[in-house]
Amino acid sequence: GSGTKGNNYVVTFNYGKLVIDQMDLTIYGETAEVVYNGGTITLSGISSTGLASGDTGSGLVYSATGKDVGTYGGAFTGIIEIRNAHGQVVTGSYNIVRIPGTLTIVPKALDASMVEITSGKLTYNAASQNVGFTVSDGTALVASDYTVEGFSGVDAKGYELVVTATSSGNYSGSVTVGWSIDKAPLTINGMVKTVSYNGAEQNARDVSAIGLMAGHTVHGIYHNALGTNVGTYAGVFDGTLSILENASKEVVSNYVVTYVPGSLTIEALDIGDAVVTQGVQLVYNGIARTPDIVSVNVGGLDVTYQMEYESKIDAGSYTLTIIGKGNFTGSKVVEWTIAKAPLTITAKDMSVTYEDDAPVYDVVYNGFINGDNAGDLAGSLVLSCGYAPNAAYSATFDIVPSGLTSDNYDIIFVKGTLTVSKKVIPIPVAVNGLIYEGEPLTGVPAGYGYGIVGNVKTNVGNYVANVTLLNQGYVWSDHTSVVKNIGWSIAKRTIMVTTPSDSKVYDGTPLTASGTIVNAIEGEYTFTTVGTITDAGSIVNGYSLVWAPGFSASNYSITENLGTLTVQKREITVETYGETKVYDAIVLDKGGIVNGLVAGESVTLNTPNTILDVGSVRNEYTITWDNAKEGNYRIVSETIGTLTIEYRPITVSLVSG
What we know:
By secondary structure, the protein is an all-beta fold. It folds into 8 domains: 23-106, Immunoglobulin-like, CATH 2.60.40; 108-182; 184-267; 269-339; 341-419; 424-490, no CATH class; 493-568, Ribosomal Protein L9, domain 2; 570-646, Ribosomal Protein L9, domain 2, CATH 3.10.430. The strands form 26 sheets. It has a 4-stranded mixed sheet with strand order 14-21-19-17, with no helix packed on it. The protein is flat and about 210 Å long.
C-alpha cells in the first residue's frame, strides 16, 4: 500500500484477500417403482440439495425409461446453467454432483378378467379338443408372458384352464377358468325290417347307432321283433349298453343315449317271380284245349293259388292268371300255347345261263292235315332268288320260298337251287402325258364290269392302278380273272421365279424389290421376296416360297432368275475451320462440320490441333462414328483450315536521365 501523512500518524494500508469456495450442489434424478402397464414408462423428475436461496438452475434434462419388467438406470442430458436472483450466471460457484435415479417396473398380477374363453360349446367327438381362449390386458399378452395348462380334453366333463405368469415376463400369479365338453347325442335304433313271408320264424334283431364316433362300437344291447306269418311285430331292447373305443376303452359315459325300438313287418310273399311248371306241350289238333299246370313254387314254397283262364282250339299263345292266397299275394300271368302243326314248302331246283332271264320258279307242299291245301294258307307265295341278268356271279343261287302264313301250321320253307354259268370285259389302258394340276387326275379310266383303285392321284409320281373284275360272272378279254396292275404317272409342273435388281445411294432405309412367280397353282403356296438391304453393299434378291399345308415343292420343277440389290456409299464433305489472330496468350482452337449425313444419323468431328504461340498449324480432324456407320459413307471433299497466331506489336520507350 502507500502511506498518507495525517496530523499525528503516518498511516500504512495493508490490503487482505477474500476467497469464496464453491458451494456443494447435488442433483438427483427421480427414482420410483411402477407396476407394468404395457406402455412405455418414463421418470423425468429432478431434485437437488445445496442450491443457495434465490438461485435457479435450467438446461439439465433427466430421463429413466422402460417398458418391460426390470430396472432401468436414468441419465442426465444437457448442460446446467445456474443464475442468481439478479439473473447473473453463477454456475461456476458450485461444485455439482449428478446422481441418476432408477426406474423399477414390477410385474402386474394376473386376474380372471384377463382370460376369456372364446370357443363355442364343445361336444364330445372322441378326439382331443382344445378350448379356444385369449389372454389380454387391453391387448393380447405375448407368449413369453405366460404358460397355459388344462386347455385340452377328450371326455365329456368339466376342465380347468390354468394361466400362469412366467418368471421372465411382465406379469405374476396365475388364474383358473373353468370350461367343459358336453356329452354327444347318440340314438340307438332297433331294426325296422320288412320281409316277405318265407314259412319260417323271422327276427328284426340288429341295432344301429346314429351319432357314434369313428372307432367306437356298440356292445351288450340287443333288439328282438319275432314273427312267422304275415303281420307287424313290435320290437323290444334287451341287455346293457356298452360302448368301446378301439374295442377296449369304455366310453358310454360320453354319450346321452336315446332308445328307439324297431319292428318286424312280414308281408305276403309276392308270386310275381314264381316258377310255374306246365305239362307236355299242346299241339293243334282241332279240339278245345285247357292249360296243364303241374306246380307253382316261389322261394322253395308251394304256392296256395287259384287260376283264371279260357279254353282254346286254334294254335297260338294264350295267357292264364295265377292269383296268390293266404301268405301269398299278387298274381303271375303265365303264357300257355297250342303249337302249330308242321308244314314243309320246298322250292324246285332249276338252272340258267348267266345274264339270261330268270326262269319261272315253283314249289312242292308236304304236311297238310284234315283235308287242308294251299288255299287254306294266308298271304301270297313269293319265290325269291339272288340271280338277275346283271347280278354278281355265283355258280349257284338259292331259290327261297316265302310269303305264306298260317295260324295253325308251322310252315318250314325249304330252298331250292338255281345253277348258273360267265361275260368278256376289255382290259383298260393308261392315259399318257399327265402334268401336275393341283387337283385329282385320272390315269386309268373307269369302265363297265370292273372296279379300279389307285387310278386317281394329285401329286407327282409313278403309280399303279389295280383293276379288279366286279363279280365272278365276268372274265377278262385274255380269259383270265386275276387283278390287272396298270402303270401310269404325273409329271412335275415347271414354274419360273424372277426377282428384279435395284440400286440406290445409302439413305438409312431398306432397299427391296418384289419379284414374281409364274405357273404355280394359286392357293398352294405363299411367295415372298425376302431380299432387303439397308447398309452399303450388295446382296442377291432372294425369295421365300412356303407351301401351304398338304402341298409340296416335290410337285414342281423350279427355274430361278434372281436379281441383285445394291446400296451405294453416300458422299459426304468435311470442313475444319481456320482463324488468324494476334498473340494473346490464349489457346486458339476451332471445330468443323460434316455435310451430307442421313437425317437422324450423327458423327463427332474431332479437331485435336490447337496453337498458343506465334506460328500456324493445320486444323486436322478425326471422325468418331456415333449412330452412323462408317461403311455407309465415303468422304469426297476435305477442306482443312489453318490456325495462325501473329506477333503482337509492343512499344519500347527510352527515358533520358
